[in-house]
Amino acid sequence: MPKEKKTAASRAEGKAEKLVLEYLIKQNRPYSVTDIVNNLHNAVSKTECQKAVNALVDKELVITKLYGKQAIYVVRQDTIDLSSPAELVAMDKELVELQAKITNYKNTNKRITSELSAFNSALTTDQMKDRLEQLKIK
């Protein structure tokens, strides 16, 4: 049997499949074809997206649910890599550390803002000299 040559169209379909699948895995929520196209910022056309989603459904990587005339697509949950309990504990620890940093940055920002406000309301050197001259004249 002769080996099939990949055409430009089949490479584009493969690229569209990859884009759509990566997006669905990253978002991990149901989408319609129109939503996928809009959220990918028109990186693929609606027709390419529909073909890609259909191919992913055929490969059993994506599940489709029909609601009347509307078709919703979601990535199969058993194909998604889950984090281990140790990774979740590490993420929780990192989250607490980052929240503490945010609190520190907010406090520092508040302190610096109040200092800036005090400096802005204070008289400049020239204004002080003028004020001193006015007081000497009186």
UniProtKB/TrEMBL annotation:
Cellular component GO terms held in the UniProt record: condensed nuclear chromosome; DNA recombinase auxiliary factor complex
One Gene Ontology biological process: meiotic strand invasion involved in reciprocal meiotic recombination
InterPro entries linked: Hop2_WH_dom (IPR010776), WH-like_DNA-bd_sf (IPR036388), WH_DNA-bd_sf (IPR036390)
Molecular function in Gene Ontology: double-stranded DNA binding; recombinase activator activity
Keywords (A to Z) from UniProt: Coiled coil, DNA recombination, Meiosis, Nucleus
Chief location bin: nucleus
Location relative to the cell: Nucleus
Residues forming coiled coils: 88-115
Segments forming domain Homologous-pairing protein 2 winged helix: 16-75
A Pfam family it matches: WHD_TBPIP
Family per similarity comment: Belongs to the HOP2 family.
Protein name as catalogued: Homologous-pairing protein 2 winged helix domain-containing protein
